[in-house]
Amino acid sequence: MRTRDTFDVFASLLAVVADAAAIFTGFILAVWIRFDSGWIPVTKGHPPRMIYVYAAVVVTLLFLFLFRSLGLYLRPQFGHVADKIPRLVRACGMGTLLATALAFAIQIDPPFSRLATGIALITVTLLVVIERNILFQCERHWAKHQASKKRVVIVGTGTLALRLKNVLEGEPRRRARISAFL
């Protein structure tokens, strides 16, 4: 049992670190697209970049707190990665909305770019979904090859017992091995 708990804690910690990297990179990428890429004309001059780096750190912490409060770090995860995408998009949208409200509450000169915040919604969401897909596949692989498995005895031998066996063995994150049928 302790191995399972350690694995789940490790998977959650890895998700937090990977989310932080994806969120921070998404905001910095949005600032680069807005000001340095040349794709969007800059009319009011270039703001100091360190303000955006500090803001990205604060917003990353805000996102991590929001993800935690929405239960996105609970392990083990069951189901498919496609089932998680709407929750991730909603969490990123809520985080960007809170970041925008925070940016407008903090009055600096020049003000934070609203367009960069809008671009950040897209870049952060895209990077978080890609990163979570990779983590989901890694967790699935690690759970499949983990040594400790729960031995399960299924009471019954009918078609329902066979379907239950297929479900339990088909989902490696359940860490179940059917020992016998009674």
Describe what you observe in this structure.
This protein has 182 residues and is mainly alpha-helical. It is 66% helix and 6% strand. The chain is built from five helices and two strands. Helix 5 (159-170) links the parallel strand 1 and strand 2 (176-181). Helix 1 packs antiparallel against helix 2 and helix 2 packs across helix 3. The longest helix has 35 residues, at 2-36. The model has no long low-confidence stretch (mean pLDDT 81).
C-alpha Rg (nearest Å):
22 Å
Number of helices: 5
Overall structural class, as computed from helix and strand content, comes to: mainly alpha
Roughly what fraction of the amino acids lie in strands? 5-15%
Distance linking N and C termini: 25 Å
Morphology call: elongated
Overall mean pLDDT score?
81
Count every beta strand, where a strand is a DSSP E run of 2 or more residues. Answer: 2
The topology string of helices and strands comes to HHHHEHE
What is the topological layout?
Layout: H1 2-36, H2 49-69, H3 85-105, H4 114-144, E1 150-154, H5 159-170, E2 176-181
Parallel strand pairs: 1-2
Helix pairs in contact: 1-2, 1-4, 2-3, 3-4
